[in-house]
Amino acid sequence: MPSDGRAWISQRYAVDWEQLTAGGAIYSGPREKLESYSIYGQPALAVADAIVASVTDGAPEQTPGQYPTNISPAAADGDSVILDLGQHRYALYAHLQPGSIKVRPGDHVRLGQQLGLVGGSGNSVVPHLHFQVSNRPSSMASNGLP
């Protein structure tokens, strides 16, 4: 919590991105297979020139259609990257594929550079890309920015 007692509202402007098939669905094939989802394995790209603030890698992927259990708030993002955009703005990319992240803390990235691949790690019912911009390099202990 902020020192003045207010609560953080980190995900107020967050977006969970999906990709539709030609038929307008988010998957084709068996619903419980990660590879059936159109967005699975798609590149997550840097939204701006930035510095990598943090990377989390190695979280297991979930089985689509099943609610994850026993995931702590600290592990909810799964494999993730946080970029320092400057001026107290940080971009979070969450639920990436384990082992797919191509950047490390301190790296300078360019607009459009691939950070990793979209997956289903962390607190994810189906593969998707969770994206948010916050005022601190934390997915939870921050305030979301528009």
Describe this structure in words.
The chain has strands at residues 15-17, 43-45, 50-56, 79-86, 89-96, 108-109, 114-117, 129-134. The protein has 146 residues and is mainly beta. It has a single domain, classed as Glucose Permease (Domain IIA). Strand 4 and strand 5 form a beta hairpin. The radius of gyration is 15 Å and the shape is globular. The model has no long low-confidence stretch (mean pLDDT 94).
CATH topology: Glucose Permease (Domain IIA)
Major sheet: size, sense and barrel closure?
6 strands, antiparallel
Q: What class do helices, strands and sheet pairing give?
A: mainly beta
Measured on Cα atoms, how large is the radius of gyration? Answer: 15 Å
CATH architectural name:
Distorted Sandwich
| Order of helical and strand elements | EEEEEEEE
The percent range for strand residues is 25-35%
Q: How many distinct folded domains?
A: 1
Q: State the helical fraction.
A: under 10%
Brief overview, please?
This protein has 146 residues and is mostly beta strands. The protein has strands at residues 15-17, 43-45, 50-56, 79-86, 89-96, 108-109, 114-117, 129-134. The mean pLDDT is 94.
SSE arrangement:
Layout: E1 15-17, E2 43-45, E3 50-56, E4 79-86, E5 89-96, E6 108-109, E7 114-117, E8 129-134
Antiparallel strand pairs: 1-8, 2-7, 3-4, 3-6, 4-5, 5-8
Which descriptors would you attach to this protein?
mainly beta; six-stranded antiparallel β-sheet; Glucose Permease (Domain IIA)
